[in-house]
Write a structure and sequence with these properties.
The chain has one domain: Rossmann fold. The chain is built from nine helices and ten strands. The strands form two sheets. The protein has a six-stranded mixed beta sheet, sandwiched between helices. A four-stranded antiparallel beta sheet has the order 2-1-4-5, covered by helices on one side. A hairpin with a 2-residue loop joins strand 1 and strand 2. The longest helix has 17 residues.
Length: 231
């Protein structure tokens, strides 16, 4: 569903990504790992149209995405859950979810029951302001907002960061449901090696803006990944 080839990206005069390749398959979770500064967030931003790469190719479902901006990337089927969640603090939970309508035709402007099945707390708090939610509740809101757009590719940047263990389990359960539904490819950026290995079907490890290792679960143990991250 997602194929990135020869991705190069700069911030000003500094090159951040060097010939990066990444693939994500429908019905699978690709765990993207690496230490701070490895380029993981920059790669997701490039795929999501938040920062345009100067070189490289992105295809979604076999169709070239070109140098899409964020709106065009969303129309192409890419949904991005950013690090830090970025909910609108003064808007209600319902209004935050409704921002996901932006790239949908008006006839599809509704919140699917599936969102509340995955994250029941959102239904209970529809009238509460986003800024009044706990960090874990905001993370569930950010994921729910991304799902409104019915993505074919779901990008999640550090969804367990600063989240209490019981909510991490809820997020993990939700990702398993989404994977098993077989309707989207999921790319998970994660520093938590235990969570990443539990959720991932394939693994891409980055270091200093380059891909260091790509492997599937059958040929890669958690200890292998930890060793890669430690080097």
């Amino acid at each position: 569903m997602l194929d990135v080839q020869n991705m190069n990206l700069r911030y000003g005069q500094s090159q951040i990504l060097f010939d990066v390749a990444l693939q994500a398959v429908t019905g699978k979770i690709t765990a993207l790992m690496g230490n701070n500064g490895a380029g993981k967030t920059s790669l997701l931003k490039a795929i999501a149209g938040r920062h345009t790469a100067f070189d490289g190719d992105i295809t979604i479902g076999g169709k070239p995405a070109g140098k899409a901006n964020a709106y065009q990337a969303a129309r192409n089927g890419v949904a991005y859950v950013p690090q830090g969640r970025e909910v609108f603090p003064m808007m209600s939970v319902q209004e935050n979810l409704e921002t996901g309508y932006a790239c949908l035709p008006k006839s599809e402007h509704r919140i699917p029951d599936m969102i509340f099945d995955l994250f029941p707390i959102l239904k209970d708090f529809l009238g509460r302001r986003g800024g009044d939610l706990s960090g874990g509740q905001q993370q569930q809101l950010a994921i729910g907002r991304a799902l409104i757009a019915k993505p074919r590719v779901l990008l999640l940047d550090e969804p367990t960061e600063g989240i209490q263990p019981n909510v991490i389990d809820q997020i993990g359960d939700a990702l398993q449901v989404l994977r098993d539904a077989g309707e989207m490819a999921i790319v998970l950026v994660e520093q938590n090696a235990d969570f990443a290995y539990r959720m991932g079907d394939t693994f891409t490890v980055m270091e200093s803006g380059r891909v260091k290792r790509t492997a599937d679960k059958a040929t890669c143990s958690k200890d292998d990944l930890i060793a890669d991250l430690a080097l």
